[in-house]
Amino acid sequence: MLCFLFAGVITARIFFITDSSDIEATNIVYDTLPSITAFNLHSEVVNLSEDLNSGKINVIFVYSLGCNSCISAANKWAEIYALKKNEINFLGLAYSSDREKVRSFVQSFKLDFKHRLIDQHNANKIQVNDWPTILGVDRNNNVLFKFEGSMSTDSLSSYLSSNIQMKK
């Protein structure tokens, strides 16, 4: 991935990975992750910045329970989490108001990282254009990458491995 810092703005490559693992890349300009207010699974209001780990790369899975690609990707997320949980901070953002359904989803796929519930307003803030959306956020809260749609575990895992090596 190419990353350049110009006056506090990150120019990043965004990869759209299809089921056939073809990769298209386009340049896009991001700055820091916007302020996101969400609910935890106990119905408490939290700010997403409290969940981000300043000592690690953060990977944020944004998903909807009504999305077939999200549900089929959940096993892939669990695999990636199991492989990378010591190096990366993972966070799930469910586009849902039903915390019991989210809790059941998390438990059934063994997604043992924090999950938050977001609404349309907050999904719009992070420019969700397709489900699932996966964001990478660095130690300084800069958005490093954004994957949209379904993707292969190998492609994302390989990308994360390269990204971590670059950051060490």
Outline:
The protein is an alpha+beta fold and 168 residues long.
Q: What do these coordinates show?
A:
With 168 residues, the protein is an alpha+beta fold. It has a single domain (4-167), classed as Glutaredoxin (3-Layer(aba) Sandwich). It has helices spanning 68-84, 99-108, 120-125, 153-167, and strands spanning 4-6, 9-17, 23-30, 37-39, 45-47, 57-63, 88-95, 114-118, 133-137, 143-148. Strands 8-7-6-9-10 form a 5-stranded mixed sheet. Strands 1-2-3 form a 3-stranded antiparallel sheet, with no helix packed on it. The longest helix is centred in the middle third of the chain and has 17 residues, at 68-84. It is globular, with a radius of gyration of 15 Å. The model is unreliable at 1-29 (pLDDT under 50).
Average of pLDDT:
77
- What amount of the residues lies in strands? 25-35%
Secondary structure category: alpha+beta
What series of H and E elements makes up the topology?
A: EEEEEEHEHEHEEH
Radius of gyration: 15 Å
Helix proportion = 25-40%
Order of strands in the sheet with most strands: 8-7-6-9-10
- Proper CATH architecture: 3-Layer(aba) Sandwich
Query: Which blocks of ≥5 consecutive residues have pLDDT under 50?
Result: 1-29
How many β-strand stretches? Answer: 10
CATH class: Alpha Beta
Shape: globular
The biggest sheet, with number of strands, parallel, antiparallel or mixed sense and barrel status, is:
5 strands, mixed
- The CA-CA distance between the termini, in Å, is 15 Å
Count of alpha/pi helices: 4
CATH superfamily: Glutaredoxin
The CATH topology assignment is: Glutaredoxin
How many domains make up the 3D coordinates? 1
